[in-house]
TrEMBL record:
It comes from the Eukaryota. This is MULE transposase domain-containing protein. The lineage of its organism: Eukaryota, Metazoa, Ecdysozoa, Arthropoda, Crustacea.
Amino acid sequence: MAKWFLATYIRDVWSRLFYLKASITPVYGAILKIDSTKKIARKLQGTAADSVSWCTNIGNENGEVLLSLLTTSESLANLGQMAEGLMARYDKAQKAPPRVLYTDRDCCRSNDKSKFQLLFNKWEDLVVRLDVWHFIRRLFNACNNESHPLYGTFMSGISGAIFEWDAFVVNLLRDAKRAELKLAGKQNPSTETVEKAVTKTELARHCRRKTRGTEVTIRLLDQLRSSFTGITDSLGVPLFKEDAIDFFLTEKRHVNCIQDPDGFQLYTKTGELVKGGITLQVYRCSRGTTSLESFHSHIKNFIPGNAFPDDDEMISIFKLFFWKTLPDGT
């Protein structure tokens, strides 16, 4: 039954392919994100198995996916046609080129242009930025393990070294939470009580933050590393590995890659919300590649692993759906 439903769905998609292409190609964006995964290709079976290794997607600041591509590698040769098609799409529609591109790697080179600056060579002013979450995860390699009692404090310190909150909107949120607590019957709540009432979800939803700058971030990261060096838990296990300083020195050159682009607004107002009689803005942040990570997870879960049909027709439709080039060459 599952195979029948999947076969029916893909045949329906195939019958609407031209409409889907027409719906996808008008999608543009000023902030692009590019990300690749092997998890999707690993779930392919039958004649499609081992024919591709990577699924690469490009999305925009609104969470929309501009294109998807299956390739055998992430080389410039394999991604070149995709880049040419996307640049041509912007050019034909007379759209302004995107200004920022977020990626999880290949953000820079020591003496030359980065991989993506070479790939999208017609967009001369394109700024390539590294996803902050991936940068923080790289620094995790300096730690012995995630179960260490000091791990959470250390990772929180890294985030504090990179970002600073907009004081005005944070204080506005605190005032709203204080008003809510008073309405709930707690008269004159303390500052500590208000702080505990503000959740991480509310901070992300109603508050903006920005990067501190390269020099300040490097200084704070050095201070953080020094403060945790030699510190152990109750069993004498240190937080850092013996070669922890090497990880910091290696990643220090990428601190400039995680900084917010100058003069570019990464937050978009999507609505308003009243809490405690105070109106709070609701924001959507365009920073990073999180939206594509979620999209990859959705696609991976959509493809059944061991239950994928083996008949030749289904495999052909599936390959055509993902691999057939769009009218503009992508």
